[in-house]
Amino acid sequence: MSEQVKKPIKITETILRDAHQSLIATRMPTDFMLPIVDKMDKVGYHSVECWGGATFDASLRFLKEDPWDRLRKLRDGFKNTKLQMLFRGQNILGYRPYADDVVEYFVQKSISNGIDIIRIFDCLNDLRNLQAAVDATNKFKAQEGRGHAQVALSYTLGDAYTLEYWADMAKKIEEMGADSICIKDMAGLLVPYKATELITAMKSETKLPIQLHTHYTSGVASMTYLKAVEAGVDVIDTAISPFAMGTSQPATEVMVETFKGTPYDTGLDQNLLAEIADYFRPYRDECLANGLLNPKVMGVDIKTLLYQVPGGMLSNMVSQLKEQNAEDKYYDVLKEIPQVRKDLGEPPLVTPSSQIVGTQAVFNVLMGERYKMATKETKAVLRGEYGQTVKPMSQEVIDKVIPGEERITCRYADLLDNELDKLEGEMKEWKQQDEDVLSYALFPQVATEFFKYRQAQQEKVDMTQADTKNGAYPV
Fold first, then answer.
1. Measuring CA to CA, which of 119, 340, 399, 466 is 20 to 30 A from 332?
2. CA 74 – CA 38 distance, rounded (Å)
3. How far apart are CA 297 and CA 22, in angstroms?
4. How many CA atoms lie within 13 A of 8 on its CB side?
5. Quick check: 15 and 239 in contact, CB under 8 A?
6. How many CB atoms lie within 10 A of CB 451?
7. 475: pLDDT confidence band, cut at 50, 70 and 90?
8. Residue among 258, 249, 252 nearest 273 (CA)
9. Residue 47 contacts by C-beta under 8 Å, 6 or more apart in sequence?
10. Which CA distances in Å does 224 have to 230, 441, 469?
């Protein structure tokens, strides 16, 4: 690139979503976020990621907050900055596939409450599971002039995932009507020179902007960003330094400094970023002191690259083995994981596919016979309920685990009837705003508990008298 051509790299700040989701289990309360919004709004970020992912569940379940209320307050504070969320395709933010009417309504309400960019992904990269959310975003955009559909590809390694595969996916994403593409590298598997090849290959097939999202887990992320930016990536995801690195993203200030005085200079003000970092630093210290932030997640876990297994999946597996007093089987399970992944069509290892593959590998090793016992999730994958995998699944395993059962080849949501009215009927006694039905759709038990709590607060119930264990709040 000649010296003259300027291409400032754009930055998405993750401190209000993925950074604290990755490091402190999404426990940052809204009241802590609001005082710094004004400063963050002056930075000139491409966007601030602040919603979706696990924030919805954690707000209701642990913080006793309404996630919609959080979004509205943030929207109110960010006058000049685009707000971004993470959305799990047909699963929205929950764990089961929802009917299209729920997906469309959720997209509509997200944008009308303040979201600008919806990043949509599917754990199998089955684009059919993303179409409804993309269409809903585009429909809203056509009517209201707001909304941006970004399709995220879950990055992974394996025979099926060639440069041709990624380039072809980029082309298909453009054809499906998305506004931009994200490479979502949840396990930190993308290494620097591979990033150059990947971005170059995708750029040859699409005109859409490409954003790169990775985690520091394996220790290479900022080098990967450097090479990706040189290869022409348009946006990178970073986290302000007190909540950067480890299982989070590279530090915002470091990346800003890296590109200073180059054609990629972000133009962001380090003094302003330093003030934002100063705001979050005492909170980080507090989280370290109270155990919410475990120093373990701050280091480099090179096993991620050796076994291509995301950190969360490894710790899950270790605790499963511990419960069974079978920690000596650790390496056997690690060997079994790639085998199970192959049997199931080589899916990317991301929530929920990573948990499904990991748990099944543990069972296979502990039982001493492969697929002697299969989890209900493994059966659902084999039936095709999660969607289509890149490679065919093992016929032998299908015959053993779900013999004679009919398999789904269409988009699973095509088999689902509209469900909004039914959901509304189930929760109408608690409804105080349209959005409540969506909270209930995603997490019925957790949302109902929250609605009871909210009512108790509004009616000024004496909480010392309340039987919170059974959800009974005397009025």
1. 399
2. 10
3. 9
4. 12
5. yes
6. 21
7. very low
8. 252
9. 12, 13, 81, 82, 83, 84, 116, 117
10. 10, 38, 48
